[in-house]
Every structure is written in C-alpha cells, then in structure tokens.
Amino acid sequence: GFVVYDGKLLDIQEELKVKEISFRQTGSIVVDEDKDITLDIAESNPVVDAIGSNMTARATEVIVRGSMGDNSKVYADKAQIQGLTHATSKVFAKDATITTHRGYLEAREARIERLEGGEIVADVVHIGHASSGKVRAKKIYITNLGSNCEFTASSLIDITSILGTDNKFFFEAGATPNEKILFEKAVANKAGLEKEYAEKYDSFKKMKKLVEDNKPSALRIKQMIDEDIKKGFEPKEAFVIKYRQFTQMLAKAKTLKADFDEIKSALDDISHEVATFEDKLLDARLVNHGVWKNYQSVVFRANGGKHECKYNPREGSKSKAIRLFKISDTEYSVGETN
User: Fold this and answer.
1) pLDDT one-digit tens code per residue, 46-72
2) What is the pTM of this model?
C-alpha cells in the first residue's frame, strides 16, 4: 500500500487520492502491476484537467473524477473516467467506464455514456449516445445512434434507436485485434500448407508415374532373379542392381505418400479452422429495434475479406435484423430477416 501521513499519524492504505496529476503538482503516477492499488484523482475545478497534458496514471484501478488532458494516458485493470477524454488521450484497461469519450480506448469491456469522435477497440462495447466515433468489437450495443459513426463487429451490432444518418456498419471475421491475429495466422498457415501440398503432390505424382512405368519390367527382372536362385545360379548382377533401383524408387514413393497424407491432413484441419472463422459471419447480426433512416451503409466482408457484400436498409423499414446469407462456397448476399 501507500504510506500516508495526515500530520499526526502514519497509515498504510490501498488507495491513493490526489487532486490532480500534472507536471507541476505530481508528475506521472505509475504503480507496479503486482500491487493492488486504487488511484483516485479528483479535480473539482471544471476548467482544470484531472490528468494533465502528457501525464500517465497507472494502477490496478484508476478513478478520474474529471477530464483527461492532451496526450495523457491511463493504464488499469479497471478505469473510470467521469469526465471528458481528450482527442489525443489514450486509455488501456480490462474494464472501462467513460462519461464522454473523444480519445482512444482499448478494453475487454467498455461502457461509454457519450461517444463524440473517439475510437474504441474492445470485445464488448456499450454506448449510450454515439456521434462521429469509430468502434471495433465482437459485440456493440448502442442506445441512441447519431450520425457519422463507423462500427466494425464480428458478432453483433445492436441499436435501440437511430437518430441520425451517414453511419457505416462493417462485419468481418477479424474485427478485434486478437481475432484478427488468430484469423490472419490461420489464413497464412493455410496458404503455406497449400503451397507445400501442391509441391508434395507434384513430386508424388511424378514418382508414382515413374514406379508405374517401371513396374512391368521390374516384375519380369524379379521373376528371372527368382528362377536363377531356384536353379542354384547366381543372379545376374545387372538384374540385381536394376531391381534394387526399383525397390528404392518404390520406398521413396511410399515416403512421399506418407508426407503428402500428413500435409493433406494438416491442410484439412487448418481449412476447417479458417472456414469456422468465416462461417461465424453467417451468425452475425445487425439488429435495429427501431425504424431505419436513410444513408445507413452495411458491409459484410466475407471469404476472408475478398468478397464485400453491401446493403442499404430502406428508409422507414422496420425489419429487425440484417444478416449475411451463403448462396454457395463463393457467393454471398445480404438481406433482412426477422
């Protein structure tokens, strides 16, 4: 904990309370990650940032009872910003709650009262009112949607009411950074195995043809060698060498076949993994509990992003959900569903 002296007594507390974090007052406050400390910053003056310009606050829990200045940063397991985040500020937390967000946020779960031009990357995001923001997440919940927002999700975008226009909704397999890393890794592995598969298949096919072409003469030579042995004669050396070459060729073909089968099995597994990622998009939904207003754009990035399916909801439509439909292995379409 922190040692606190109130003028009379020394006390050890698990919470550090300060009026503001600034270059003049405190400098940045960074608490070791292994210490379970709550950092509580309270600035009552509305014109003074609770976390000043270029300052950093790091603790297990950070409570900011005020706003964040330009280029300020917060790192915490749990972060509460009860004011405004500056456009150049950054918050990194497992769990984040922000009153008005204009900066950058990375979290597992985020609750934003007002999104005003800020950017969010998280697993799950809850927004009260959104305007001119950018969000990437698995699931996004919006109570009131204003205008000029961009949302990218892999599973769900849920809207209670649309108030504005010119919003863009994207759905893709790798919406969040973690998902994107896993998906791109799987796609890269698949591409590598496909190349190796093609090379091994070509080598195996050539070796197989060589074995088949030489098999009849090899069998005749083997028969002559066996007949010489039965008669007690020493087999001709040329025949023995020729047949040995064939058996070596056959052994190599079997080895190539085993390698080929192993690569094929691995390719089948990784292809299934990539397909699972992509097929999740078929379960993704854009849900609107109200009425659609004009100039809303919906895009599903199918087939690893190679195929973009676009849709514009009709003005006044009360269709509850929009989803992706798979027509064939390479064809998709987007439409409304209840």
Assistant:
1) 677 888 888 888 888 999 999 999 999
2) 0.75
Tokens found for residue 288: 């609107």
Q: How far apart are CA 226 and CA 20, in angstroms?
A: 97
C-alpha atoms less than 13 angstroms from C-alpha of 159 in its C-beta half-sphere? 28
pLDDT at 25 over 70: no
Which residues, in sequence order, are CB contacts of 118 under 8 Å at separation 6+? 85, 87, 101, 102, 103, 104, 105, 112, 133, 134
Q: How far is 290 from 16, CA to CA, in rounded Å?
A: 45
**Percent of the chain whose pLDDT exceeds 70:** 89
Rounded Cα gap, residues 89 and 60, in angstroms: 19
Task: Spell out the residues 6+ positions from residue 327 whose beta carbon is closer than 8 angstroms to its own.
Answer: 333
CB 92 within 8 A of CB 74: yes
Tell the residue number behind the tokens 């919940």, with chain if given.
Answer: 141
Tell me the C-alpha distance between 145 and 135, whole Å.
13
Locate tokens 């979290």: which residue?
107
| H-type alpha helices, the chain | 177-230, 237-279
Contact by Cβ (8 Å): 299, 168 = yes
Take residue 289 and report the two structure tokens written for it. 């509990």
